[in-house]
User: What shape does this take?
Amino acid sequence: MTEALYFLDCYLKEFEATVEKVTDDRFVVLDRTAFYPESGGQPSDTGKIVRQSDRAEFDILYAGKFNGEISHEIAGENISDGLEAGDRVKGFIDWDRRYRNMRMHTATHVIANVIEKEAGAQITGNQLGLDQSRVDFSLEIFDREKFAEYERIANELISRKIPVNLYLISHKEAKEKLSRLTTLAKGFSDEIEEVRIVEIEGVTIEACGGTHVKNTEEIKGIKITKLQNKGKSNRRMYFTLIN
Assistant: This one.
């Protein structure tokens, strides 16, 4: 299992690690990483790793999680340099991309929670993007005019400078203490033994493995850009960040 350094420290921009294995000369597994792997609607981090022995640099195009291991895809032009198991490396996260995703992800929790509470909707999915993100939800009566109010409520919450807390608890403890583990209708897998909790104080507590800001003020604000009817009770909302 790769140690996921981003779980409790989303602001970690650099880290040191050891190469555990390399597959097809371009997929690298480290013993520990701060690179977020694509999952839960959040795109993966990009950046680079530097071999400490000779300062050779390897651009990271993508990170994904497979069977508990986080694999880092190296850019094609770096393949011939050849990383090997046992190499000591230092990783560097593309911070601008990561921080934008952090703001987007926490904003998604805020607006999704507002839609859930105010409209009685059931959240069915989401997809983060650097320019805009979307939230999918199930809602029988789709009153588009009310979404201006939902946006206002979300921005009012964001402006309160609410702390965002991240912590790990056992899945059993989470089931006992929380009324729900996630806003997603599909729920959370029982195969997960330890659950990472995201708490926006006084707003929402839920299970989520993504990266988040420490305080809602970092989001700055959101703007709903489009609403779509995707079929019976299936709705979609797009939003972007202000600034």
Residues 95-119 form the longest helix (25 residues). The mean pLDDT is 91. Helices lie at 95-119, 147-159, 171-177. Residues 31 and 151 are 42 Å apart (CA to CA).
